[in-house]
Design goal:
Blueprint: E1 3-11, E2 20-32, H1 34-38, E3 44-51, E4 54-61, E5 67-74, H2 77-87, E6 92-101, E7 104-111, E8 119-124, E9 138-141, H3 149-154, H4 162-165
Antiparallel strand pairs: 1-5, 1-8, 1-9, 2-3, 2-6, 3-4, 4-5, 6-7, 7-8
Length: 173
């Protein structure tokens, strides 16, 4: 069984940009998304993602917190394009920047469209209580459901209040 342990952070500066090793354009959508989970109709979210010429299907348990069951499988690009455009709840677009800092791999997502202006650093850990570096560009932790990609389709960053955008109000969407 796959398990994801992930923390998310807003950024406190642009110092990370000089450390970017590569960047990938990503388009993703959900076949079973936030609305079905919130209504109690689903125990998981099901995502299709296209990153460059690679495509995948991802299933995550619908539990709150930094640790969730996760399974990911490669699928043909043509299948992903069809699923994304014909069957998903909407498309989320972002550029994912890869930054290594003191042995940690930060994935920094810079969102586009209705989520433009939102930049979130993600850090996957081996354990929920694992230590990790805190570079000066890493801001407040926002590992709350509001920042889950599945929720950014139903309630994009453009519709958030100023408090929500600052990470001061992290209640569920």
């Amino acid at each position: 069984m796959g398990v994801e342990i992930e923390r998310k952070f807003l950024l406190a500066g642009d110092g990370w940009r000089a450390l970017v090793e590569r960047s990938d354009r990503i388009a993703q959508g959900y076949l079973i998304g936030a609305a079905a989970v919130a209504a109690g109709h689903a125990k998981s979210s099901v995502r299709v993602r296209i990153s460059g010429e690679q495509a995948s299907l991802n299933i995550k348990s619908a539990v709150l917190g930094i640790q969730r069951d996760e399974f990911e499988y490669p699928i043909p690009l043509a299948d992903a394009e069809h699923l994304l455009h014909a069957l998903s709840d909407g498309v989320l677009e972002k550029v994912r920047h890869h930054v290594h800092y003191q042995g940690a791999h930060f994935e920094i997502d810079e969102f586009a469209g209705d989520n433009a202006g939102l930049i979130v650093a993600e850090l996957e850990l081996d354990a929920a209580d694992a230590a990790y570096p805190r570079p000066d560009w890493l801001g407040v932790e926002v590992s709350a459901p509001r920042y889950y990609n599945v929720n950014l389709i139903d309630r994009p960053f453009a519709r958030w209040t100023a408090e929500e955008k600052a990470g001061r109000e992290d209640t569920a969407c």
